[in-house]
Amino acid sequence: MIDAIVDSLAQKSAAKREPGDYTQDGLLYCGHCGTPKQCRISFGAGVRIVGCQCACQIRRFEAERQEERDREMRLRIEHLRASGIRDRNLADCRFETATETEELAKCRRYVERWEEMYAQNNGLLLWGNTGNGKTYAAACIANALIARGIPALITSFPRILNAGWDKREIAEQMRQYPLLVIDDLGAERESDYALETVYMVIDERYKARKPLIVTTNLTLEEICKPKSMDYQRIYDRILEMCVPVVFQGGSIRRKAANEKLRRAREALDG
Question: Which of 3, 8, 87, 90 could pair with 139 as two cysteines, CB 3.0-4.6 Å apart?
Answer without folding.
Answer: 90
